[in-house]
Amino acid sequence: MEVITVESKAYKELVAKINTIAQFVAEYQSVNAINPEEEWIDSFEVCSFLNISQRTLQRLRSKGAITYSVIAGKTYYTIAEIKRMLNERRIRSSEEAMQNLITNHQRYVEQRRVAKANK
């Protein structure tokens, strides 16, 4: 059996590089594994990123302007459905707002994933 001796500083640098690579791979997989338009987001996220109130969102649901799903009393929407509604000009917004919604949702999901892993 061959034994290799490494200085502490060199070992720590090697571990830091491995952690950086592992983090990059994890981020790359999480971003590319799921089509962002198929993601489900809750009412809070929709209202926050479209700058509309809960009541406005409720009116859109009541009018049938947006499809949704309710699970355990919580309402969810797909990003594709919100995009469809925006494209029909039912809510004045821009493609930039939609991209912000997708980006912020991905950050939110990552924060939840990290928080869950740290429990």
TrEMBL record:
Coiled coil: none annotated. Residues 43-90 form the Helix-turn-helix domain. InterPro entries: DNA-bd_dom_put_sf, HTH_17. Pfam families: HTH_17. PANTHER family: HELIX-TURN-HELIX DOMAIN-CONTAINING PROTEIN (PTHR34585:SF22), PTHR34585. This is Helix-turn-helix domain-containing protein.
